[in-house]
Amino acid sequence: MNNRIDLSRRTFLKTTGILAGSAVLAGVLPLRSFAAMEKELVILAWAGHAEQDIVGDFERQFGVKVKAKYYTGGDNMLGLISQSPPGTFDLILSDAEYVQQLNAGGYIERLDPADYPFDDFFPEFQKFPGHWLDGELYSVLIRFGFLGIAYNTQLVPEAKVHSYDVFWDESLKGKIGHFDWHLPNLGQISLLNGNSRPYDIDDAHWKAVQEKIMTLRPQIGGFFDYGGTFSSLKNGQIHAMCGIGDWITGVLQRSGAPVKTVVPEEGGLQWTESYCIAKNAHSPELAKKFIQYITAPEGQVKTAKMAAYPALIPSKKGWELLNKVDSAEAQRQNMVIGQRNVMDDIRDGRIKYRELPVQQSLEEWNDFWSEYKSA
Fold first, then answer.
1. Residue 245 maps to which CATH number?
2. CB neighbours (10 Å) of residue 226?
3. Which residues contact 347 (CB under 8 A, 6 or more apart)?
């Protein structure tokens, strides 16, 4: 998959300067003392990645403390990076489509592929789009998942969720929600419109996506952040949610909530999370060791079962271990070797990688999303 090629440092800084206004910039981690540098690993990440179920064994093994600044959404991440002093972070957990932006801005280091277990990965993930530039590695994929239709199984019949058209069902007026981020939502509408490359569309098809989603606006009961998405689905305020997947419903299922995510006939989107080592990191060796830790089979099992939100994993050895230690979760996430599984959905073309807009700017998509929300 190719993203826009005009990712110069100037473009990056212009984009992040605009986005920073909507970023939650308060509480950025303070600069560390020299004595703390080799005893701390500071991560910029989605919520959950520095909790004890993930980092506890790493902290004990290396005698260090993992700290994190959490964000929601790639635009927020870009804003935080652009506003933080050099050396603030050691590791950046990035949605895959933003790696090229970070690289173009000079915010991440080149990596040595020999340091990481790519031979353990399924072939589709060994040279993942956007993680390499001119044959050089800049990011290591650690987990992924699919976005489709998330719904309450007691309030929405399964027969209705075979298509994204369910979001327009009259019986669901005021009961449809959006996870408040333009890329997943607009990407799903682009799929519904029949675009095989949902983010690589010309201006005519982009206009059609805008017109289509505007007809959905009367159905919408709210735009939700990370926590609001959980609570609105759990308490029945929202019956079906656009822009999310099992990373939300999988957590709710653990607490007995009657929710589920399906990939409809138009297909689904793949979100992908990857680690980059930050430029000017105070603890680059420790950062490398953490990537090695989380991509080893044991680390892959941890991230598949992460308490904050579960995920699929790219490591075949990780799959094998997950099936040994928690076969129920392997079955639930459809990561069972020897039968049809999530890799077949990718190989059959049912899943498209989430990307940055190719023929429009990220700013243009973001501006339209703001217009849509206020309509």
1. 3.40.190.10
2. 20
3. 124
The tokens for 318 are 């990780």
Contact residues for 167 (Cβ-Cβ < 8 A; gap 6+): 149, 176, 216, 219, 240, 242
- 368 and 250 together in one domain: yes
Q: Specify if 188 maps to a domain.
A: yes
The C-alpha atoms of residue 151 and residue 309 are separated, in whole angstroms, by: 17
Mark out the alpha helices in 84-195 (DSSP H runs): 99-104, 182-192
Closest CA relative to residue 167, chosen from 188, 145, 146, 196: 188
Structural domain containing residue 158: 145-269+355-374
User: Which backbone phi and psi does 330 adopt, to 5 degrees?
Assistant: -60, -40
* Distance separating alpha carbons of residues 51 and 75, to the nearest angstrom: 23
Residues 138 and 16 in one domain: yes
How far apart are alpha carbons 274 and 140 in whole angstroms? 5
Q: Which residues of the chain have pLDDT under 50?
A: 1-28, 30, 33-35
**Would 365 be classed as within a structural domain?**
yes
346's tokens: 């990718």
pLDDT at 38: 64
Looking at the structure, tell me whether residues 150 and 130 fall in a common domain: no
Residues 14 and 137 in one domain: yes
Q: Strands 140-152 and 240-245, how do they pair? A: antiparallel
% of the chain at pLDDT higher than 70? 90
CA angle 255–259–260, rounded 5-degree value? 120
- Asked if residues 138 and 144 have their Cβ atoms less than 8 Å apart, the reply is no
What total of structural domains would you count in the chain? 2
Q: What is the pTM of this model?
A: 0.89
pLDDT tens-digit map of 122-133:
999 999 999 999
Q: Are 193 and 136 found together in one domain?
A: no
pLDDT digits 0-9 by tens, 21-71: 333 333 445 455 444 556 899 999 999 999 999 999 999 999 999 999 999
Instruction: Tell me the CA distances in angstroms from 147 to 266, 271, 340, one per residue in order.
Output: 12, 7, 19
Asked whether residue 1 is domain-assigned, the answer is no
CA atoms within 13 A on the CB side of 320: 8
